[in-house]
Write a structure and sequence with these properties.
The protein contains 28 helices and no strands. It is mainly α. Helix 13 crosses helix 15 and helix 19 crosses helix 28. The chain is elongated, with a radius of gyration of 28 Å. The two termini are 33 Å apart.
Length: 500
């Protein structure tokens, strides 16, 4: 079936008159009781004297019953219906179904209904406080059925988004270390982009809520599951979070842009702690794979030369995450070959300058829109968009200043020859780097003077503040860089927290 069946038709007029309707809806209580009773009978059948067909029958769902339960699934989006299901102890019924049934479709539907019910705060609190139900739901992460995994991820994300109960689920997940292995297995092996997108959102939310849990997952190798999903005695693979996140990012890259944004935020969160940065750069293969993926995204996919400048509005959050991770790797002092090749950074410089140039266009457009609008909602959107653009600018300038500090005259000469560094591009870079990165710009200008005196003089004339700052000591560069890095890390958290 391409979609769930539509809800049942309205009750008859006599049903309305006798109070058979659920709340203010036209759905029938008696009909719903009948469906739930059939569901109970399905998982508690009469003794069949050990029939060998029991297991086979449990994996299939009667078409008529499936249609009726799917109607309940659709109906559960209505608050009156959800509250009625809660009053009828439906979560306990579903807990029995999930504990006993081997039918993937039935398990998916039951978790899906609970997911709809959890969208309402009162029910979400009740479901979250039910310890036995919570344990059964987390065991669904061991399921091999992608639709069921998708629904349990949606349910868990809904609960984690409710601040009143989020800590309950974080602690519950911490009590089940094997959840880490199950999630890593999904990230590293699934080809279902919808599932990867939703599981990524769960990981992103967990890391955002609890840095301690994030650190535990960074440091993990393999942990023997408490309740392994397979009965085979094969040796369990060693999962590490960074390679798993990278594999998932590669999988969703072309088909699920929102999913890619999520995985870039996960990498960004990982690199806000020293252990996370080390998890990336200490292993040469992982570091190189991370850098290669991010380099390819910013140099060949996002904000390209033939894209309209306004495209930056759509890509601002993912670009901020990507540049933030790359900047953290670049500033980590990792002695890796892929970071030593200065000429390889020229396309990266070109991309950073293009982002800064397009940013000017976007900010002017936002300002014009805000001036012409009197609606408070549009003004609020302008403030939020402008805030994210400013964060992208801070991160881009931080990264560009780090690269500028390492450029040799040979690399600058190559950049001038190939067009990554020109009068226009250097002017754009200086305009954004000054005055906060004056020492960096001054050092770059000194090196540029050895390569192209005319260009250096022209730039110095265009930015008079550089003449005044010539006497500053070179040591101020590193001092400013460290302060700026701290500010950037703070911006990472702000960017993630405010991303609505």
């Amino acid at each position: 079936m391409d979609r769930n069946p539509s809800p049942p038709p309205p009750s008859r007029e006599e049903d309305v008159a006798t109070g058979d309707c659920i709340g203010s809806t036209v759905y029938s209580k008696h009909w719903l009781f009948g469906v739930l009773n059939g569901l109970i009978q399905l998982v508690t059948p009469e003794d069949t004297k050990g029939s060998s067909d029991d297991e086979e029958q449990q994996t299939e769902l009667d078409e008529e019953l499936e249609n009726e339960i799917c109607r309940v699934w659709d109906m559960s989006m209505d608050e009156d219906v959800a509250l009625f299901l809660q009053e009828f102890n439906t979560p306990d019924i579903f807990m029995g179904v999930l504990a006993k049934s081997r039918c993937p479709r039935l398990r998916e539907i039951c978790v899906g209904i609970l997911g709809n019910m959890a969208c309402f705060q009162e029910i979400c609190v009740s479901i979250s406080n039910n310890k036995n139900l919570g344990q059964v739901l987390l065991h669904c992460f061991y399921d091999s059925d992608p639709p069921t995994l998708l629904e349990i991820s949606r349910l868990l994300l809904t609960c984690l988004s409710q601040m009143e109960v989020a800590s309950i689920w974080v602690e519950r997940i911490r009590e089940y270390p094997s959840i880490y292995d199950s999630i890593c297995f999904i990230l590293s092996s699934s080809t279902n982009v919808d599932l990867l997108g939703k599981v990524g959102e769960v990981v992103d939310k967990l890391f955002d809520l609890d840095e301690k849990l994030m650190l535990e997952w960074i440091r993990k190798g393999t942990v023997p599951p408490l309740d392994p999903p397979q009965e085979e005695s094969e040796e369990q693979p060693v999962f590490k979070i960074v390679p798993c996140v990278l594999e998932a990012a590669k999988q969703v890259r072309s088909e699920h842009p929102e999913g890619l944004d999520v995985y870039m935020r996960i990498l960004q969160l990982l690199t806000t702690v020293d252990d996370g940065i080390q998890a990336v750069v200490q292993c040469p293969d992982t570091g190189k794979d991370t850098w290669s993926l991010l380099f390819d995204l910013v140099c060949h996919e996002f904000c390209q030369a033939d894209d309209p400048p306004i495209i930056l509005q759509e890509q601002k959050t993912v670009l901020a995450s990507v540049f933030s991770v790359m900047s953290a790797i670049y500033a980590s002092q990792a002695e890796q070959e892929y970071l030593k090749r200065e000429e390889a950074n020229l396309p990266l410089i070109d991309s950073l300058i293009r982002v800064l140039r397009n940013m000017e266009h976007c900010q002017k457009k936002l300002e014009n829109s805000a001036e012409s609008s009197t609606e408070e909602t549009k003004k609020s959107d302008f403030i939020q968009d402008d805030f994210h653009l400013k964060i992208l600018k801070d991160i881009s300038c931080e990264f560009l200043s780090n690269i500028f500090q390492t450029l040799t005259k040979e690399t600058i000469a190559l950049g001038l020859k190939e067009g990554q560094l020109s009068k226009q591009k250097c002017s754009c870079a200086f305009q954004h780097l000054l005055p906060f990165y004056s020492p960096v710009v001054e050092e770059f200008l000194k090196t540029l003077n050895e390569v192209d005196k005319a260009l250096a003089a022209d730039l110095e004339e265009r930015f008079p503040s550089l003449k005044v700052g010539k006497t500053q000591e070179k040591g101020a560069v590193n001092n400013l860089g460290s302060k700026s890095m701290a500010f950037t890390i703070e911006c990472k958290y702000l960017s993630h927290f405010c991303d609505c």
